[in-house]
Every structure is written in C-alpha cells, then in structure tokens.
C-alpha cells in the first residue's frame, strides 16, 4: 500500500503556497491553457443567473465509455461549485505613476560621444561598460576581458591598453563608476573634490593609506599613524560618509521599483472592537465554466450514432478540460477557505496584539498552535504563512512575523523572542556610540529585566536583526 497525492491535491498545495500576486498570474495562465474556463465580467449582472442554469450534477455514473451526465444541466448543484468570486469589497485599483528614466548603461554609453576616442578605443570602452554591474563596478579582471576580446571579438589587446581605456571610463559621471573595488570607488569620488580643504585631504589619505583600519573602525590606530586630532578624524570621516558606495544605483531604472512592492493577501479592519477579515483579491479574475462546451456534450448525448471516432476524441478532450476546470475552481475555493480559517485562528490567538498593535502583547506562537486550533496539518499552516502579508490598521506585516518561540522569564511567565529582539534593538539604538554595548553587556541588561539568556543566544538575535558587533558600531 502506497500513499500518493492526487493531481488535485498537488494543485491545491501549489495554489496554497503562492501569494496574491502570483495567484493572479497562475489564474491567467490557466485561462490561456484551458478554453473551458472563462473570466466573468464584473459588470455582468446576469452572471449569477447564468451560472445557476449552467450547474451540473456530480453523481456516481455507470462505467460507460463516455459518461457525459456529469456535465448536463441540473439544478441540484449550487453555482458556487462552478464559479469563484475573487473581488474584494473595494474594486478600485489605484495606479501609482512611474516616471520613465534612462538606464544606467545607456547613460554611460551616451557619454562616449563626449570624449575624443578613436574607433578602436570606443569599441573597447563599450566592452568595458558592458562588463559593469548595476552598481557601477567592474568586477571582472582586465586579464579576463583581454581573453574575452580575443575569443569572442577577435580583437588583440593588452591589460595596459585596457587600463588606459578604463581610466577614461572612470572619468564618466556619476563619480566612482568603473571602480574595481570599494576603495577605488571612494578614491575616485574624493579625487574630484577640492583637495585644498583640509578634511577632504585627510579623507583621501585615510582611503588611500588606511582603508583597512577605517573599515574595521580602528580609529585609535588611524589617529596614531596620521598624527591628527580626534576632531580632524571626525570631519574626515564625515566627508567619507558623504560618498556613494554604489554610484550606479542613482541611475537605476525606476520602473523596476514597482516589482518589489508588497501586495497584502489579507485585509483586516476593526470597527467597534470587532474584526473583519477579507482576502485581497481585487486583481484576481472571477472564473466560471464556459457553457458552450457543456452544450456541446449535451448535443452529443442526444445523438443516436456515437461511433464516430472523431466525435469521440472531441468529446474526450472536452470532458478532460471540463474536469480540469472544475478541479481548478474547486482548488481556488479551497485555497480561500484554508487561508481564512488559518488567518482567523491567528487573529484569535493574538487578539490583544491585533487590537492595539503593541508588540509586547504578541504571544509566543508556533505552527503547531495554529494547526491544533484549526485542525489542519502543520505543513498546511506553514504553506499559508509562507510569503503572505496582512494589512492592518497599524501597518502591513508578513504572517511569519507573528510566529515566534517562547522564552521562560525568571518570574515564571513566558515571553516571545520577538519581544527580546525589540529590547535588544532599543538598547543598541540608545547606546553611546563611542562605547557600544558588547554582547556580554547586553546579556547583563536583559538579565536585569528578568530575561536570562546566554551570550550566544543574544549574538544570534543581534545577527537576525542585521546589527553588527559592537566594534563596527563605534562612532566618534
């Protein structure tokens, strides 16, 4: 005996994992591949009546070669089994205008015409520009570019010639393009500034001769080796911090920004202390089964001669597509139902948090808690929480952020690890940047507040918050 997932179960699992934006694309793909499915016009007031007439009965059929009674009109099956309503209460779709901009590489190539270059130099310069990344760096070695030109363009050159061209490219705007590492990028930028200014001259010396100490924030070594005062070092560092470590990012294509926007899967409203949860499906098409294919099968059912092979193949194809369409609509309905059941259980579990948005009231919660509350499998809860977001009256949050392990306080109560992280973030934000708090000191502070954690645990939470070690947080 083997336990296997049916195609319908696999389809349901895949639909459950994807967020709202990908669901819209998945439905459109299904509409293109399955002619039986069609999109309902939201302005069609007769859609509901038509669906009522087009419903079919699901009964156990005899083992006939072609059983088409499944698709005959029958009033016993409600219309919701053949259609989905994916529109939210607010059908308005606000569009954010995005201004067009010249691409970064196109902007660099436009500057080639402003330089006095021979045809060969311009060809080499274009090849160098083509090897730059979106940040404006030339990550490849000149030796590798020499080999590429020889094999792909049949151009013989040398590293010295390419370096001469690279120096011309590094004179392009924005300052810092064409650099091969961060140090060279900052040095190219600082060289364009007025070197008669004392702080700028010091900044150039630091970048050129003491860059390693600067990145590691060994300010004492810099003060000693350069024989300067702390104020002079501070002004010099301020000049360095004004430089752009990613010069190409200034000219990135703004049209790509819309691809990174977050579209919430759930919308939670609160009124008079009562929660109203809805799925955000305003961009998801509403589906139904095309009646033409059901009528086609009905016509075939009333024919006397059913032995024609061409007709049998046609009916078999239509039946297959009808089954697929019904499975897909049913999977969409199951997805909606599972999402709402799971999210309602999370809201009920974290009711105090959702009422006020106070993270200190966020209870420790793991996938098992919600699985027991809903009766669903832990893997199903995990798929629901993956890549999903909810819009509340206090912001948009990923569902994963509501799940956290619990820690036992010395007083006996249980607290969420998220609250511990918030305390760490607050302590580090308010620390004296001249003497940042080490992990050992953070352990002592947490212990005073009743949280007994090991140093390695504090270090793990700090890294999860993307906060560097104390030495790298030091400022003058």
SS elements, strand count: 8
Shape: flat
Q: Round the mean pLDDT to the nearest integer and report it.
A: 77
Proportion of strand residues: 5-15%
Q: What level of helicity do the residues show? A: 40-55%
How many helix segments? 20
Order of helices and strands: HHEHHHHHHHHHHEEEHHHHHEEEEHHH
- The rounded Rg comes to 32 Å
Q: Which structural class matches the secondary elements?
A: alpha+beta
Cα separation of the termini:
70 Å
Strand arrangement in the largest pleated sheet: 3-2-5-6
Poorly predicted sequence stretches spanning 5 or more consecutive residues: 45-77, 87-101, 253-259
- Biggest sheet architecture: 4 strands, mixed
Keywords:
476 residues, Arc Repressor Mutant, subunit A, two-stranded antiparallel sheet, flat
Short précis:
The protein has 476 residues and is α+β, with helices and mostly antiparallel strands.
Question: Can you describe what's shown?
Answer:
With 476 residues, the chain is α+β, with helices and mostly antiparallel strands. Among the domains are: 7-58 and 65-90 and 290-328, no CATH class; 104-250, no CATH class; 406-473, Orthogonal Bundle (Arc Repressor Mutant, subunit A). The chain is 48% helix and 7% strand. It has helices at residues 7-17, 20-33, 47-53, 104-110, 119-130, 142-152, 159-169, 182-191, 198-209, 211-215, 219-226, 230-241, 291-301, 309-349, 351-356, 367-374, 378-385, 417-429, 439-448, 455-464, and strands spanning 37-39, 266-271, 274-279, 287-289, 389-392, 395-398, 406-408, 414-416. It is flat, with a radius of gyration of 32 Å. The model is unreliable at 45-77, 87-101 and 253-259 (pLDDT under 50).
